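Re: Re: token formats

Sure, here are both.
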Amino acid sequence: MDCPHALPFEYRVRIFRELVKEDRRAAGYGAQAGGADANPADLGQRVRPVAEITIRRDLLLEDALAQIPRLGDAIRGRLAVRYVNAAGGDEAGIDAGGLFKELVSDVLAAGFDPSRGVFASAPSDGALYPCSDAGDTREGLEIVELMGTMTGKALYEGILAEANLAHFFSKALLGAPRTIDDLPSLDPELHRSLIQVLRYDGDVERDLALDWTVEESKFGAVAAFELRPNGANVPVTSDNRMAYVHAVADFYLNARRARANDAFARGLSRCAHPGWLRLFETHELSLLLCGCRDDWDVEDLRTHARYSGGYDKSSKSVAMFWSAVRSMDAAQRRALLKFTTGSTRPPVQGFKHLHPPFTIHKVVGEHGAFAAFGFGADVARLPSASTCFNTLKLPNYRRSSTMREKLRYALAEGKGFELS
């Protein structure tokens, strides 16, 4: 396709999904349970897994590193997931896709965590990118490649991930050149300093005393890198400062990060072919991966919601639920979406494209005869969820105050499948 960006974004998303489906058919793999292409009748549960991934929560990243890279191209097939709790037993929950989505979310959260020292986040917007020294060790490269693989798997299966990639890093993954104009998304202070060098009116060589080297901390020591042969002995002057500024930007955006960028791209390409990703511009890649960044539309979710177990859209408990959701702030609504679907963000094209559809299932609980009038006990049970089916299991509360209280508690405390 010569000019893919001339087509509407939504149309290119559909093209991407068709490319994935054709690739899966050609390779002979079934759709992933929990993925966008799973059979609606059984949600992919009848597809034979290519592997079972066993994860201990206290050794999450270590277990993922030991099992996922060795799958190779088979990562494109269905993965069955089993979580083991602290006592060594299987956690409650049948993997109809929810455990897989949790695996993607958990592994990406662990690997991208800046405190681990492999990835960093921009202070302005939290956008992620590999640390400059991530490519200096085998362990760092292994983690970066795993993050690329899991990011590619999320894209391949149409699963939203909490992974907002930095602008300059996204450009690297799309094969677009990175220049000094992209430096603010990595280091805005360095960008300002270089611009000041370009605009300096005095004697650059005498006053600034710069040479063609940069210094960076490496394994606890300061290391010098030459930007040109014999750079330590070449001064920066008014005549060569333009070339110097571009050389510094190239070093930090490209040369210093080449090994880490290549590792991430290598993992990414196991599922997401680089040519497919070039259907999208830099900001669209994050949109495809993360979904809409803004607060989601309650009415869009309500319009496309389904009901089961005895509820319908006119049920009193359902009406109280939607009233409670409208009263939530943005953070609480994100928590609700995370609780029920495994992601804090809606699909790129809205809840019409959430598969399976968001469903509210009735759970009958005991309550006093006059609970609806404010007397006696209301239903005590908490809401629970099945992220495999994007289903909220909602007790038939009789009072709005109970609905709000129980939802707040469940969203604050609910994590994993054990509560459900």
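Second one below.
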Amino acid sequence: MIKQDTNSVFKEIWQKIFQTGGTRIYTQILGILTLSITAKVLGPEGRGEIASVITIVGGFATILHLSMGQVVIYISAKEKNMDWFTDAFYNLVFILIILSIIGYVSFILMLLFFNHSFGHVRGLALILAMIMLPFMVWEQYGGNLILAIDRIDISNKYNIIGKTIGFLFLIAVYTLFGLNVYTALLSIIIGQVIISSGGFIVLYKITNGPFRISYSWIKNILGQGLKLHLNTMFAFLLSGTDILMLNLFSNLDDVGYYQFGAQITQSVLILPAVVSSIMYGKVSTIGPNDSWPYHKKIIKQIFFMLLIIILFLYFTAHWWIPIIAGNSFKPSIILFKYQIFTVLGLSISTMMAPQWISRGYFTAISSLAIISGLLNVGLNYFLIQKIGVLGAVYSTLFISFTSLGINGIMYIIFNKTNKVSI
């Protein structure tokens, strides 16, 4: 009977991976088609500007959300029913309103007095992209609420709707009027608004009770979130520093070349991202210890699949990159051949995250993230100015392999503390 239950749980996890993976593959295909169209029409400079403004807005959102959405996973893992959900939803909505106001005021002040800090991007493109700020923050809050109640299907549904409508808008504008940086940004904004708003409406319907604000609840989650937020901010430094520093110290062409490879690399990371999403729901419902036997087996299977994908993309890059992006992106080929190997460390880090979070290792996560983030900033700062865009690639590779080593150690530790096997 135990064996049957074990097989049933493992089968359920893989079914969710296939369902969610199908959604992510579909949205990634749309993303690659969008990348191909915008790369061929706007060129490296146009793609570089889009990447830069999206990264800047993402930076604002990362600083603002204070990691309170991730703490929801920790809270839900300790609860045996859904009594926590209504308080979590309404208080996070209240927090979102306050943080959005703070974010916009900060942005206006920076635009007025420190606009040089935004590098080569145009002010109008940046202002347009900032529309997404509250929606990006809510995606972090709402996304984690969805994971905490193990309803990944909600995210799947609105990701498909939002990405499809955004892509169709891009095609319509391109066909009727021609494409520029602003219309390309508008298609991204439309998709983001639909994804965040759709999930919001569904979550609101799940609430049980009137709108209420609990300052003690906010104080508690804020305290927990701040412990974790250093990790989140330095994680952004790991993923966003390269784009921001290339924008400041190099040029938009280099940003475009680099971001092309980075986006393809992110497409490969959909598998570990899906595993992470599914396992967040699983650790919330059965706990980190009981979920670990399934978790570690899936990690090994996914990692082997990624190795095959990495080698295939590495040896065929010279063929498919010009097809997707055009000959103007040929400089991306050598960059991508390095970038693709960052998947090794990034994938393990992504798949192990639910175990770190659900076990409450907030301080440890933050400490490691601070060290890694500072290293990445330092390496990018010196290497980009010395050797250009390759400096950003080398920095990311170094951090990725460091993460691979650290998470490999934690994998061994979790194995020793969990003797149950499947």
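The mean pLDDT is 84. The CA atoms of residues 99 and 105 lie 10 Å apart.
- S.
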